[in-house]
Amino acid sequence: MGIIHFLTQTLRRLYDWVLSWADTPYGSLILFVVSFAESSFFPVPPDVLQIALSVSKPRRAFWYATVSLIGSVFGALLGYYIGFKLWEITHDFFFAYVFSQESFGKVEHLYHTYDFWAVFIAAFTPIPYKIFTIAAGVCHISLFMLFVASIIGRGLRFYLVALLFFFFGPAIKIQIEKYFNYLVIILTILIIAGFIVIKYLI
Question: With contact defined as beta carbons under 8 Å apart, do 70 and 32 qualify?
Answer without folding.
Answer: yes
